[in-house]
C-alpha cells in the first residue's frame, strides 16, 4: 500500500479515538504539510480551547529516527504530534523511548485489507508557535 492510502483510515481513527471533531488530509504551510491533521475541543462546556493534532503517516520502510524526527518537527504548529506507522512488528522499547524523549505519540497500523489502528504511546501536549499553529 502507498502511504497516502492509509490517510483516510487514520483520519477516521483520529475522530473515533482521539475525539477530533474535524480532520483534514495533506494540509499545512509551505514549511511542511501534515499527512493527517485533527482538531479537537479540550475546553469543556464553558471554554473554547482546542488542540491541533498532527499525524505523520509512514509505511514503515524508512529509518525510525527519520520518521519520528519528522513527526516531532510538526510541534512548531501542532499541540500534539503522532507518528502513525504501518508495520508488521510492534514498536520496540528503544523506539518507544526515542518517541517519548522527542514528545511524539506512536500509532501502530496493521493489516492489509482491514486496517487496524492502535495507539501505543500517547502524545504529550506541546507548545506550538502561535504564528504557525494551524
General description of the model:
23% of the residues lie in helices and 34% in strands. β1 (22-29) and β2 (32-41) form a beta hairpin. It is globular. A six-stranded mixed β-sheet has the order 1-2-3-4-5-6, sandwiched between helices. The chain has helices at 7-17, 64-73, 93-102; strands at residues 22-29, 32-41, 50-58, 80-86, 105-110, 116-121. It is an alpha/beta fold and 134 residues long. The protein contains three helices and six strands. The model has no long low-confidence stretch (mean pLDDT 92).
Compose a concise summary of this entry.
This protein is of the alpha/beta class and 134 residues long. The protein is built from three helices and six strands. The mean pLDDT is 92.
Give the helices and strands, then pairings:
Layout: H1 7-17, E1 22-29, E2 32-41, E3 50-58, H2 64-73, E4 80-86, H3 93-102, E5 105-110, E6 116-121
Parallel strand pairs: 3-4, 4-5
Antiparallel strand pairs: 1-2, 2-3, 5-6
Report the span from N to C terminus.
29 Å
Strand order within the widest beta sheet? 1-2-3-4-5-6
Beta-strand residue fraction: 25-35%
Number of helices: 3
Over all CA atoms, what is the radius of gyration? Answer: 14 Å
Please tag this protein with its features.
134 residues; 3 helices; alpha/beta; six-stranded mixed sheet
